[in-house]
Every structure is written in C-alpha cells, then in structure tokens.
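Practice problem. Given the sequence and the SMILES for flavin mononucleotide, write out the predicted structure.
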Amino acid sequence: MKVTVINGTEKKGITYKMKELFLEQLKDKADITEFYLPKDCPSFCSGCTTCFLKDEHKCKDRQYIEKIENALLTADLLVFTSPSYVCHVTGAMKAMLDHFGYRWMPHRPAKEMFGKRAVIITQCLGAGGRSSAKDIKDSLSWWGISDIRIISFKLLSDIDWNKIPGKRKAAFTRKLYNKADRLKKIDFTKPARTGLSARIKFYMVRLMQTGLGKKDPEYTDYKYWKQNGWLDNVRPWKSS
Ligand SMILES: Cc1cc2nc3c(=O)[nH]c(=O)nc-3n(C[C@H](O)[C@H](O)[C@H](O)COP(=O)(O)O)c2cc1C
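Answer key:
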C-alpha cells in the first residue's frame, strides 16, 4: 500500500508526533512518501489563472506541484496534517492547496481521486482543530475523494509533547492506533466507493460543462471533460 503524507508544517512539534504515531501502525504495510511545507512547495499561487484557462504545466511552480501531484495520484492513502493557526490550516498548507484549484471538480478533476482514501490529522490547543480539518476536507472532497477521515486533537495542556501528562498522551495514542488499525483492515487493491455527494457534484458540473461547451467548444475545462468521455457515458469512478 502506498501512502503520501503532506505535512502542513516543517516543525517537529505535536502535530508531527501525532502523525508519526499514526504512521507507526501502518509502517509494516506501507511505502510512505512525505512532503513538508513550505519547503516542498515554497511559493504562493500568483493568481495568473494559467492553470485554469490554459495549461497547468505552465505554472511558475510546476516543478514543486508536479512532484506532489504524482505522489498524490499514485498513492492508495493520502494523509494531510496541520496544526491549527488562527482556527485554520497553516498558510503553507493553504498555499499548496491553492495550487490545486484547477483539480477541483468544476475544472479538471483527476479520475484517480474518485477511488482514493484520505486521513486528515489536525492539532490545536483549544479551538480550531475541526475548522482546520474542514479547510483540507473542502479541497479533497472537491477533488473527488469520498472516503475522508478526520482525526482532530485538542491538547489543552501544553505545547510541548514531553510535558503533556502521561494519561492524556496515552488517550491520544490509543485514538491514533485505533484509526490506523481500522485502515489496516481495508483492502487497498479495491478503490473506495464514490459517495452520493461526489456524484451530485459531478452531475452538476457535467451540466455546467455541457452549457459552457455550447458557448465555446475550445474552452479548456470543457475539452477535458469531453476527452474523458464524462459528457457521454464514461464515469470517473467506474473502471473502463
Ligand atoms: C500562528 C499561530 C496561531 C495559532 N492559532 C491557534 C488557534 O486558533 N487555536 C488553537 O487552539 N491553537 C492555536 N495555535 C496553537 C497551535 O495550534 C498549537 O500550539 C499546536 O499544538 C501547534 O502544533 P505543532 O506543535 O505541531 O506546531 C496557534 C499557534 C500559532 C503559531
């Protein structure tokens, strides 16, 4: 099983510790590739819209995006982690996700995403763990992923893992082990089921693309949908 991890911070703090505990349970089964932000995607989207309107390969940051995208597309399980910064993901995580705006369903989603599974791990001191997870989930669900699990922590006690009382640590560790254990039981040779929400999104966008194509048959997103056969009978969640 292939796992790709996107770490929303380079800091080896509590979020890192949580993620390590989680991965520890999968290590015997998994081939793991990790990215650390901002190091592995250091630039912001400049809003040039070249990816949306022309070609994603012409993005000024393509060298970084391509590596991450290849790892995302070839993995069976995606893991995203972020501490909560002012109730949201880190700026580095948001900057990386912005670069994948062109992969949102209304544009050019990758068919591989429809069968994928993902886990989001967030950590906060008091508030914001859930809203930070939602920042990531919004992108993943609009990329077409249906099986998204959230593990959100609220470590009220301390910012230093070593100073957190043993009992609390044990409780968090159990939670991570349980989640990882459940994943171990999944047969990753079979893709995840595409849920109703992803299908509704797909059919809404399909209608939109049909209309856009009538106005401009050369429109980049329309041509992509047409070439994939999605405006006919092909569906990204069905193997051809
Ligand atoms: C810029 C910044 C903003 C933060 N905002 C929040 C917040 O909104 N809510 C919260 O509970 N903790 C907040 N925190 C605390 C971190 O989420 C918390 O310390 C977390 O454990 C850091 O994880 P790390 O050790 O992996 O870096 C913030 C920390 C920083 C540096």
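Check your answer against the key. The mean pLDDT is 94.
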